[in-house]
């Protein structure tokens, strides 16, 4: 299967270099450049513009996979929400102690500036694509390049709007320092993203031969998400009619993806390990060579590309370090019964981010337990004792022993943070690269940016916000039926605080969705209420004494923009 070649991006540096012959040292030291590179002449071919787009794919891959294990990206992926926290050994890195969280926190600046980096790269590609000296093989080639750039810009602004609210809209290349950016409203930020997505939609192909490239369904999915966000904000602003219109648009664009004939939920075993009796269709979704649409996975809309050969050759970031960063540390939490870093304990975990009890247990309590997504092959709860002196050697170690094996309550709580079930999304029983010295830290499969399941959940929420609770239940049951759940939801389960939607997102999209975006986009006190309720450590309940539904504008951004005052978001003033 063809993949995006992102490890060759460094070749772009050659665009800005030239070789000057010399006759003497003096000639060599006398700088006489043949030309000066500007935004208008740095690109000379359409292939170079495509390399600029590939640089964005590369940055988004690193932002999602987090191969450098940057703490702020763990927050972007959900740390500090209702779903994830930190273990005892990393309590100093908590994103739930609001005595340490304020607009100067580096997480906010890193997230804010990274999305603007994406915007700057997209603006450069859009500007360069229209330069007269660029030759395109066809109008379609140029249209596709522009569509990808507009999608990336829209994606960045949608993320900024969900996390920070209204932000400055930048569409031009900035070549001089600028200190007078002005915030737009959250509505205007969402509308800009929508306009870019609408401009890109029809110039993106339904499918591609190359894994990882953007397709039309990705734009339609993001339009469903953007209209849902816009409608929620309109309703919060008191414009119910406009909000309802936006929710209808969200449903319409989700329908295009769900009912368009290109994407469908995988309903039966498929792919590289389908003959193995131990698996199920949900487990198949997360096995090597099974993720891409081009692999026969019809619910993959957009995936980041991970390539082991590239990793070995020169792209050390082409990996998913999920076993390492998300995996438990049984060797510290239950050393008398479980030790080592092999497959039997989920790989070489160091627990940078852990699932809360809400994520690991609460969402599967009572009638919710009967669910493929809660099966041992998908969300492994059975760990066989591997310490010869343990009374559980060769037998399952009970969770009561792992959680409550000490007479000291603090030790037990710490152990509960180090021992937890292992999702098939973060570990495997068949690690690639062991013969080359790999140590069960990394997965080498592709990973989802957009999966059809999330489109269905977006539509369910839009239907609920339109007052169609029965329709929302029907959509949720599409996923529950595929997961062979024993309990099907009804309109009566669709509560006004969106707990059902959020719980189903947690069951279906654990380690996949951007939970902060979801919670903050919903507005009100949904985010802070759930953090207070489900955070693993007590610091959240003790220190989250104010309400907010947006992250703060970083103080560095406010201070640098000296010619125009940028208002701080509600709840964060004077913190």
From TrEMBL:
Localization: Cell outer membrane
Domain named RagB/SusD: residues: 292-572
Residue ranges occupied by any SusD-like N-terminal domain in the UniProt entry: 63-228
Superkingdom of this protein's organism: Bacteria
PROSITE patterns: PROKAR_LIPOPROTEIN
Keywords: Cell outer membrane, Membrane, Signal
A Pfam entry, by short name: SusD_RagB
Family matches, as InterPro entries: SusD-like_N (IPR033985), SusD_RagB_dom (IPR012944), TPR-like_helical_dom_sf (IPR011990)
Similarity annotation: Belongs to the SusD family.
Protein name: RagB/SusD family nutrient uptake outer membrane protein
Species whose genome carries this gene: Parapedobacter deserti
